[in-house]
Every structure is written in structure tokens, then in C-alpha cells.
Automatic annotation (TrEMBL):
Cited InterPro entries: AAA+_ATPase, ABC_transp_ATP-bind, ABC_transporter-like_ATP-bd, ABC_transporter-like_CS, Oligopep_ABC_C, P-loop_NTPase
Keyword Acyltransferase belongs to the record: no
Lineage: superkingdom: Bacteria
GO molecular function terms listed in the Swiss-Prot or TrEMBL record: ATP binding; ATP hydrolysis activity
Keywords associated with the record: ATP-binding, Nucleotide-binding, Transport
TM helices/strands, residue ranges: none
PANTHER family: TRANSPORT ATP-BINDING PROTEIN
Record domain ABC transporter: where: 6-255
The species this protein was found in: Paenibacillus elgii
The protein, known as: Dipeptide/oligopeptide/nickel ABC transporter ATP-binding protein
Any Pfam family matching the protein: ABC_tran
PROSITE patterns per the UniProt record, alphabetical: ABC_TRANSPORTER_1, ABC_TRANSPORTER_2
Length: 325
């Protein structure tokens, strides 16, 4: 099996959000006890509703945020507790591509300068070498050299995302964390950017952590998928197993709205009742029990263990195996 590039163990992140009674800070549990690994060269996707902790997990892995507890291993090194000075040289190896390319590109800078920025920070090279690299990167993402002289507002959404990808690639990272990278784009442009990401992965041996709420996009790009609900990872499996035989009642509901290619295989759409509970005060036991159509008494008091149910297929649910809580 390919070695993991990233491994997270019992990762937790809490944010103090405001003072409660008697001046006590109220804690928002954004990520709770999450463990998984990402193999070198694969695309691992995290899916879930907004507020499930998927973006926070991506920011923890790239250490834009510090974890409250747990370990983050990157290429054999534990980076969860490193201070900013020791993280900085590692940053070039893990780059992010964001949802809104416009917001992440400085409107006052020319495209060529935006792409050159990480080279200025991380690489010792002459101006001529940098210029050559920028031209190469524009070409790699399907733009022409004249695009380098333009400003972000002169570009379409798809072109701006190409610039975001070129900038991420500039320092030759091994991991790219792409947080909803095509959500702001038209469907026709989405597939162009996804195909570009796949081509670049093949060409440069990149590893992707892909974060999305869009299951058709995730189906297109993923090797394996993790499903998060209210800060916890509830299921993890290969893409095919996840789409064909989801085990967790939340995943079953989430994936029931995805159209199946074979019309003979009818899938009943499961509509979840109730709103997503607040991560400030998550339900006891299984966090999904307030909305789960299969909830049992034990689910209200005992948290299910995230465990391997079938080879490579993990689930946290009392319906399976022996959940010891
Ligand atoms: Fe539903 Fe219980 Fe499984 Fe949670 S542990 S998903 S409440 S059956």
C-alpha cells in the first residue's frame, strides 16, 4: 500500500467564541477526534454539510490553524505542535486553493506578479529565472503569456481559478488542499478545472485533499472519501464503496440525492428531519441521533467508535460491529 503523506490522529479544534455566564468562554467544537490518512498521489475528499468541520480540518492540516489536541503527521514529521517559525519552511510543500479565486487574488497586482509572489518568498532565484517560471506556470494551467500582464478583474471565474492553481503550483508542493475550488464556477467550467487538476496530479505526482459539499464533483475527482457530520468523521471508504454501499445513516441520506447512472437501480431519496444542531452544544452520544432515522436508545448516551467494518471501509455507528464507546 502507498505510504501516507498526511496522517491525522484524534484531531480536535475548539474555538472560544464568546463569554457565557460568569465570564466563561463558550467553546465551539469545530473538529472532534478525527483520524484519517491521505496516501501519496491520491485524491482524498472530505464531504459534509456546511459547518461540519471540513474546511477547518483542511486549515489544520496546512497549519493555517493550530490544533487544540491530536497529531498531524506530514511526510513522516509531526507538525501539529510546531511553532510558526518551524512551520514556515514546510508551507511550500502544502499549498491551498480556495473557493473564491477573486477574493484570494490581490486586485491591484498583475497576474504575473501574483504567480511570482510565492517564488519571491520561498525560492532563491534571479528575476529572469522567476519570469521564466511564471511563463511556464501560465502555460501549465492553460493560460497564455499575455494573460500575465492583466489584472484579476479582467478574468473569468474559471481563469481566475487557473491563476490560483498556478500560484499554488509555483513552489512545487506535494500536497494541495483544495477547499471548494469549483463551487463558485459554472458547471461547464467546473469540469475544465477538475480535468486540469487531474492532469496536473498525474504530471507532478500531486496529492490532493479535496473539500466539497458537491457530491457530483467529489465523484468525479476522488479516490477515497471521508464524510463529516458536526465535527466528526462518520464514514470513510473508497469512492466506489461510498457511492454504491454507504453504511452510515447520514451518508445514506446524503448520497440518496445523487442520481445513479443505471435507471434500474432506483434509489429512494432520504430526507433528514430537523436542523443541524449547534457545534457549541452538540448532542450527547452519537451526534447524529437527533436526526437519525435508525436511532436507538444507546445512541443517545454512547458515542460510537469509528472502526473498520469492511476492508478499508470505516464507520462510526452502533448498527455495525461492536461499538465500545
Ligand atoms: Fe444513527 Fe445510532 Fe448509528 Fe448514530 S449510532 S448513526 S444515531 S444508528
Amino acid at each position: 500500500m502507498t505510504k501516507p503523506l498526511v496522517e491525522v490522529k484524534n484531531l480536535r479544534k475548539v474555538f472560544p467564541i464568546k463569554k457565557g455566564w460568569f465570564g466563561k468562554p463558550v467553546l465551539l467544537q469545530a473538529v472532534d477526534n478525527v483520524s484519517f490518512s491521505i496516501r501519496k498521489g491520491e485524491t482524498f475528499s472530505i464531504v459534509g454539510e456546511s459547518g461540519c468541520g471540513k474546511s477547518t480540518t483542511g486549515r489544520l492540516i496546512t497549519r493555517l490553524l493550530a490544533p487544540s489536541e491530536g497529531e498531524i503527521w506530514f511526510d513522516g514529521q509531526e507538525i501539529g505542535k510546531l511553532d510558526e517559525a518551524r512551520i514556515r519552511p514546510l508551507r511550500r510543500q502544502m499549498q491551498m486553493v480556495f473557493q473564491d479565486p477573486y477574493a484570494s487574488l490581490n486586485p491591484r497586482m498583475k497576474i504575473k506578479d501574483i504567480i511570482a509572489e510565492p517564488l519571491l518568498i520561498h525560492e532563491k532565484m534571479s528575476a529572469a529565472e522567476r519570469e521564466k517560471d511564471v511563463q511556464r506556470l501560465l502555460e501549465v494551467v492553460g493560460l497564455s503569456s499575455f494573460h500575465g500582464e492583466r489584472y484579476p478583474h479582467e478574468f473569468s471565474g474559471g481563469q481566475r481559478q487557473r491563476v490560483g492553481i498556478a500560484r499554488a503550483l509555483a513552489v512545487k508542493p506535494s500536497l494541495i488542499v483544495a477547499d471548494e475550488p469549483v463551487s463558485a464556477l459554472d458547471v461547464s467550467i467546473q469540469s475544465q478545472v477538475l480535468n486540469l487538476l487531474q492532469d496536473l496530479q498525474e504530471e507532478f505526482g500531486l496529492t490532493y485533499l479535496f473539500i466539497s459539499h458537491d457530491l457530483s464533483v467529489v465523484e468525479h475527482i476522488s479516490d477515497r472519501i471521508g464524510v463529516m457530520y458536526l465535527g466528526s468523521m462518520v464514514e470513510l471508504a473508497d469512492k466506489d464503496a461510498m457511492y454504491e454501499k454507504p453504511l452510515h445513516p447520514y451518508t445514506q441520506a446524503l448520497f440518496s440525492s445523487v442520481p445513479v447512472p443505471d435507471p434500474r437501480l432506483k434509489r429512494e431519496k432520504i430526507v433528514l428531519k430537523g436542523d443541524l444542531p449547534s457545534p457549541v452544544n452538540p448532542p450527547s452520544g452519537c451526534r447524529f441521533h437527533t436526526r437519525c432515522p435508525a436511532a436507538m436508545d444507546v445512541c443517545r448516551t454512547k458515542a460510537p467508535v469509528f472502526q473498520e467494518q469492511e476492508p478499508g471501509h470505516y464507520v462510526a455507528c452502533h448498527l455495525y460491529g461492536e461499538s465500545k464507546g
